[in-house]
Amino acid sequence: VQPEFTVATSDGIRNGTPEMRYSLIGREVTNDALCEHLSATGLEGVIAVVACDKHPVGTLAAILEHNRPAIIMSDGSIRPGVDSETGEAIDIVSSYQIAGSDDEELKKRIACEACPGFGSCGGMFTYNTMQTFIGVVGMQPLEMVSPASEDQRRVDVFPDELITYLDNMVKNDIKPRDIVTRDSIRNALIVAMSIGGSTNVMLHAPELARAAGYNNFNEDIMSFEEFNHLSKNVVPVLVDARPFGKYSMVDIDAKGGVQVFVKDLLDSGLLNGNTLTCTGETLKEQIIRLDPKSPDGEVIYPVKKPFKETGGLRLLGGNLSPEYSSILKLAGVEGGLENNVFIGKARIFDGEQNLLDALENEPEKFMNKDMIIVRYEGPVGGPGMPEMLSTTGAIYGQGKGEKVALITDGRFSGATRG
Q1: Distance between CA atoms of 96 and 73, rounded to whole angstroms?
Q2: Catalytic amino acids?
Q3: Residue 51 needs a FRET pair 20 to 30 A away by CA distance; which of 3, 58, 366, 408 works?
Q4: What is the mean pLDDT of residues 364-391?
Q5: Average pLDDT, stretch 246-264?
Q6: Which residues on adjacent β-strands are paired with residue 197?
């Protein structure tokens, strides 16, 4: 056993700062470092414990390139906090939404109460979108996705199970590229739609497909036409989860875990149950063994009576996005669209900081039906394509989340709503 450690960028701490430009490249730095380490040491078996958003993807990409037996395990979600005055559940997004307040006592209290422990972001943000993706794609046992970071199973139960699974993979020469295939990636994309997942899944899924040997995502895995057809007409949203809903991954775990909605999607014929997983079982066999509960109808909804009728993600085309490389988290949209169209006045900002300054100093100038455009924050312009949770949090915190639209060449957090 050879433990290794790496240092990651925290999106939660760095949002809205110049350091956020380093977040996305953390995926590539992790990939490069692990590729070097795995190749140099010749490790024949790896259990990778991952946290936050980008580094699980970089880790899995490296594991796929190394292609020796390996399993991913998430560090688990942070539990939501409780507002001591209102009794409502709060989380990291609550802090961003009141960040522009002049009430210093309120800001300190919410900051202290929003994250009362350790773990990665607890809503259905990018972290939990990608952990669910990694579980469904077959590289993490499904029952290990939803338990909180503080859950004792992560210490007492899961390590021995992981060793057993890895031992089986080594003995039977089950490699990551045997698991991460076209069909398993398609399964994971469909589940991402069904949980109203983060827009970042369409940044990370093509990278994982590349590492698994598929160089043209549109042709080899799923075209944008099929993606939009499935999300619009076939796959509904099945969880009432933050940021667009009420509950956290800890609540999903209490209702049986991600395996509940994976089973329902399987039973509904929306997933391919024959894909191999790191447990040595097919996805269907793993679900049969876990024997999850039925959806409770409050936190996890059944396919036949979903939380939202259509899937949570859409790929957008047009003159700004001729390759359909833009994405909308429709599950997070709470108003302002009429027949899926927004018509408004363009207000252009060169860089996120200019918008943040305007929101702080001239909030009264933002009017209903404004279309806020933030440019020069893309992969080149940022540089680093920083996500904009501070911006969307500030807009929402000022009560404009349902009244204005925001488009950018940059990136949104999975916690974005409105």
Answers
A1: 28
A2: 413
A3: 408
A4: 86
A5: 96
A6: none
